[in-house]
Design a protein that fits this description.
Layout (H helix, E strand, L loop, with lengths): L28 E5 L2 E7 L9 E7 L8 E3 L2 E8 L1 E6 L2 E6 L3 E4 L5 E4 L6 E8 L3 H8 L1 E3 L11 H14 L5 E3 L2
Antiparallel strand pairs: 1-2, 1-11, 2-3, 3-10, 4-12, 5-8, 5-10, 6-7, 6-9
Length: 174
Amino acid sequence: MTTQSGVPLPPDDISRKLTLSHSDDPMLRHVSIVGGTYTVLVSGEQTGGRYCLIDMLIPPGGGPPPHRHDFEEMFTVIDGEIELMFRGQPYRAAAGSTVNIPANAPHAFRNDSNRPARMLCMCTPAGQEELFLAVGDLVASRTAPPPSLSQAEQAERMARAKALSAKYRTELLA
């Protein structure tokens, strides 16, 4: 078998294993960040760094501040809706919508509705899931309530995000 460019495909890497995950598996890493719960379904470690897949449960009012990063990010809204800001322009994405954010483009999203929104988020290459795990708080499940953080604890999480963002190829813009 050859690829379109005529270069033979490499042999199967039998050291890599099949990944089968379920969003509600308590053994997965569920992290509370910016008011939502992000469940790492497939990590960069499992894909050889090619991509990661994250199940995002975004409560009303939740979502990250404006930011950008040097990797592609794609969302598919499974339930609810989000308001996106992309390069200063507003967009709305409802259940069934898929949005691709090009690398380096400034963006943000927010759940402005009165019910939770749920999205699948793929980042390629992987690494964003590691930032979430370094900055957020682990919770027991995808639907567990986030920890109740004091203003000082919230400020510490934001300071940690700002300090670590460059390491994870991300720039916070607010």
